[in-house]
Amino acid sequence: MQSVEQSHHPGLIGRQSLPSEAVDQAKKVRREEGFPVGWLIAPAALWLIVFLIIPLVGIIVFSFWTATGHGMVADFTIQPYIDYVYTKGFFDPESRYFLTPSVFIRTLGSTFYFTLLVMLLCLIVGYPIAYFLAMQVQTFKWQMTLFLFAMVPFWTSYLIRAVAWLPMLGRRGLINNFLVATGIVDKPVSIFLFSELGYTTALVQLYVVLCIGPIFFSLAKIDKAIIEAARDMGATAFQIFREIILPLSLPGVAIGMIFIFVILMGEFATAVVVYGGKATTTGTVILNYYGIANYPFAAVNALMLMLSMMVGVVIILRLVNIRKEL
Amino acid sequence: MARWSRERRRKAFVKGGFSVYYVIFLLFIYGPMIAMFILSFQGRRGGTSFPMRGVSFYWWERLLQPSTVGDLQGAIGRSLILAIVVMIITALFSTMLAMAFRKKFVGSGVLFYTVMAGLMVPGILLSLGLATVMRQVGLPPAWWSSGLGVHVVWTLPFGFLVMMAVFNRFDSRLEEAARDMGADEWTVFKEITLPLITPGIVAAGLFGFTLSYDEFARTTLLSGEYNTLPLDINASMTQRIRPTLFALGTASTLFSLILIATFVVINTILFRRAR
Lengths: 326, 275
What we know:
The complex is a heterodimer.
Chain A: H1 2-6, H2 19-32, H3 37-62, E1 66-67, E2 72-73, H4 79-85, H5 103-136, H6 140-151, H7 158-163, H8 166-169, H9 174-181, H10 196-220, H11 224-232, H12 237-265, H13 269-274, H14 282-291, H15 295-319
Antiparallel strand pairs in A: 1-2
Chain B: H1 2-39, H2 58-64, H3 72-100, H4 108-120, H5 123-137, H6 143-168, H7 173-180, H8 185-214, H9 229-237, H10 243-274
Helix pairs in contact in B: 1-10, 2-10, 3-6, 3-8, 3-9, 4-6, 6-8, 7-8, 8-10
């Protein structure tokens, strides 16, 4: 090191300044290059504080306020929380509500149930599509084209896609026409529109695209050489899938499932459109209590929804390590 | 030799099976939309389901007349304006954030998770929270204020992830070279960085536009006096459903498709130029 610094040649023509100063200058510039971070993040950070943090903090604060019938006052109470978990007659063996959870907890439960059901169905329907695109389609161009075709509905209004189910599901809908025409049933059945079956089918159609993307990306990343090696060593197709492809695609599955889980838990529009508002999801409960100006109780319902979502996401993250994917 | 051909046949069989499944899948996700599209040309006396009673443009004409369901034309205009503003803000903010994240800074972790929280928090929660806060403060909600606010919270994570991916593959030596040649920060940005990341910015903007244009849950309690398009569609659903709704749905879907096609074309051109 020493020798290098000493060896600075004064130059053949005239004299050149020592490099130390110039090097220092360059280092200083390096540290300050690019726009100042503060200015870059300030607008977005401020926006998020006003429109994300404050509303969330507001929900937590208001859940402890007292409802007055047409608004609320800053009077500390935990009554909304009690109303949420406790129904009259819970401890009374004579009552028909003996040891049954409150209607709000049951609503949250059924929201959870539908969400899990739809997640599972989306996985069953969507995984083979992602597998087909990533493993069976050979050229990149075709892969991308077919992938885009499967993803296009994501860019269209989901409310309208929900509306589009109406002509399919009704008593005189397409599905019934088809069933009658092929002779599977004698006369139209009314099990589709405003039924659990129709509702679930519509939800799967609406949200399955959300899991195809992430699964496709993690499948496409798998090194084909590994599969080739396994095949050379005599692994069957099923073994290759179980031992290599499935484990490596789990991060994508987890991300897709988180997407669907998060969106479905807060879902309420589809319930109104294709289920005729028969299903109460936690989302509709929140809207109802907002409508009758019982804001603290709406806030408690919202908090419980958020809490159960966080639990769900943590469980998914515990099961699968998605770090590798990010 | 025989084994080889059997293996081949098996592979072709599997591939064929998957292809058939893919086609069925496309029918499943596009089928309802196609049915809606056909039914929007339902005859004057026809209803909201098959069979078709003649073919007409009657319901499409009804769509253009005022007074069908609420203030449809106004709602479309408001949704378009909102989507354009959200698009601009999303593109701007996500570019700025992603540029900031190229360096390490204090609180970057917190900021990252806060941006991502916009994706995770259900729309109904944000809607409720902001509506109650504004009510306590005494500010009336409106689509151009509170509506705009929560829309950007929702679209920002998508744009941000796109721009992060863009900068991940970005070669900063190009910028360093420009700096070494004496360019100041603005010149570097304008001449080097911006042209290279433009496809990403367009993608982030597209996310902003379509997600805002279709957003329903986040605007439910926050649009104030005037409805955006999804709210108007939802309101018309509580009345008797007519094929007008299908015409509207078809128009809206076609609009989205044209938008994607335009985007694909623009980005191909930009990518070719960036290279």
